């Protein structure tokens, strides 16, 4: 099977709609949207932990929740404020009294909002927002976001209670909650602990695919060392059940321990190997080529369906050393247009075109894409991009190639 077929298989096997009864009063909704949500039933109301990614998906959850209990949703807790976790909240607006979130533990770079246009453009490419449902198989972490589909909208609710600090304990409708700031993948991430019956909702600090240490839509450096520390904190809580913001739950202490440990150790391996390569004077691309996950980490829970080890390595490299990789040719290069002209003059357009076509025939699509940087033939580019997309097990990479091809 090619990468695309493996991605389809992974999606069919793991993102089926399902309600897990975690405890007598705790229900975990998987496959209802791009993200997951948890319903905790209190004395007279329901407390929701996250609310999916759109009104259509949240309404389906609400309808099924009403088959379990007739108690209204009065409280919503956000594990973090990414749109795919909060954009179904408005479906519960007729009954909700409180929406709880945490403030960012660290601030974004000043003027980051000035990059809104380019980040949105790259997000559209990476998430496949401009693709058909058939072309956009999955988001890698779950089903396609519902707001792209006809009749679905994002309907988030603004938090009414925003905490700062490390930890808050709240009794909500007879249920004790411990809300713990754990800024890992995002700066406002929290874990939600229910001491009885020892259940932990961790948002996006853990999920059952290789983690997004870098987002190709464009993101500042995500501190991997800090994320590892957060995972140590999560493991120290010794939960019986862990509920991720995407994919599937970890049930039972052994599964919790082994899955979290493997995930944590994989991050540490990538971080340390990258730093070691950098310290040997290796360039950015040499380092990305050298750092691979050992077989012991190649489990079902670390598949590269959402992010790639290579992207993580490059993010760590630039996060620690910046853009210059020590290669003299990259220090003060000639203008790209001048370099392209020199290469074309040297190789010859006809010879280069033949080589690109041969690469496409050999299904060496990435080589064709890179050679076409000099030739800039739109038809060859489109053909190579589509071919490369078919090889991708990674949803975001696949979307990006297809979206660029569609542009042409």
Task: Describe the protein in words.
- The chain is an alpha/beta fold.
- The chain folds into two domains: 3-321, Metallo-beta-lactamase domain (Metallo-beta-lactamase, Chain A, 4-Layer Sandwich); 334-407, no CATH class.
- Helix content is 40%, strand content 15%.
- The chain has helices spanning 3-14, 55-68, 83-86, 116-127, 224-236, 253-279, 284-290, 309-321, 336-347, 349-361, 365-375, 378-390, 395-407, and strands at residues 18-23, 26-30, 37-41, 46-49, 73-77, 98-102, 161-163, 167-172, 175-181, 190-194, 199-203, 241-244, 250-251.
- The strands form two sheets. It has a seven-stranded mixed β-sheet with strand order 1-2-3-4-5-6-7, with no helix packed on it. The protein has a six-stranded mixed β-sheet with strand order 8-9-10-11-12-13, covered by helices on one side.
- Strand 11 (199-203), helix 5 (224-236) and strand 12 (241-244) form a beta-alpha-beta unit.
- Helix 6 crosses helix 8 (309-321) and helix 12 runs antiparallel to helix 13 (395-407).
- The longest helix is centred in the middle third of the chain and has 27 residues, at 253-279.
- It is globular and about 75 Å long.
């Amino acid at each position: 099977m090619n990468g695309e077929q493996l991605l389809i298989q992974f999606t069919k096997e793991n993102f089926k709609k399902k309600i897990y009864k975690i405890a007598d009063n705790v229900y975990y909704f998987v496959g209802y949207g791009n993200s997951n949500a948890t319903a905790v039933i209190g004395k007279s109301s329901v407390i929701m932990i996250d609310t999916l990614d759109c009104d259509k998906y949240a309404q389906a959850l609400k309808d099924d929740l009403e088959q379990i209990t007739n108690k209204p949703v009065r409280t919503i807790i956000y594990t973090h404020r990414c749109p795919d976790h909060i954009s179904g909240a408005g479906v519960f607006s007729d009954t909700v009294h409180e929406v709880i979130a945490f403030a960012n533990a660290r601030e974004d770079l000043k003027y980051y909002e000035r990059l809104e246009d380019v980040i949105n453009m790259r997000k559209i490419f990476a998430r496949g927002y401009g693709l058909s449902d058939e072309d956009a198989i999955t988001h890698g972490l779950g089903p396609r976001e519902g707001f792209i589909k006809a009749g679905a909208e994002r309907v988030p609710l603004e938090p009414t209670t925003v905490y700062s600090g490390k930890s808050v304990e709240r009794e909500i409708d007879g249920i004790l909650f411990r809300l713990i700031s754990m800024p890992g993948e995002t700066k406002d991430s929290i874990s939600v602990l229910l001491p009885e019956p020892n259940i932990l909702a961790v948002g996006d600090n853990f999920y059952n695919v290789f983690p997004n240490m870098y987002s190709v839509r464009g993101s500042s450096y995500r501190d991997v060392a800090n994320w590892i520390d957060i995972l140590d904190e999560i493991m120290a809580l010794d939960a019986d059940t862990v509920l991720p913001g995407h994919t599937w739950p970890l049930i039972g202490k052994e599964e919790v321990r082994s899955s979290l440990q493997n995930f944590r150790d994989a991050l540490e391996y990538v971080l340390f190997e990258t730093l070691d390569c950098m310290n040997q004077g290796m360039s950015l691309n040499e380092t990305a080529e050298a750092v691979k996950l050992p077989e012991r980490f190649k489990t079902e829970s670390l598949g590269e369906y959402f992010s790639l080890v290579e992207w993580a390595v490059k993010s760590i490299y630039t996060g620690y050393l910046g853009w210059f990789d020590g290669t003299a040719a990259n220090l003060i290069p000639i203008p790209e247009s001048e370099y392209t002209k020199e290469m074309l003059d040297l190789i010859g357009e006809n010879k280069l075109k033949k080589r690109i076509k041969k690469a496409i025939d050999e299904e060496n699509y990435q080589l064709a894409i890179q050679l076409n940087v000099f030739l800039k033939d739109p038809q060859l580019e489109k053909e190579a991009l589509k071919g490369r997309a078919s090889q991708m097990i990674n949803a975001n990479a696949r979307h990006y190639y297809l979206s660029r091809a569609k542009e042409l």
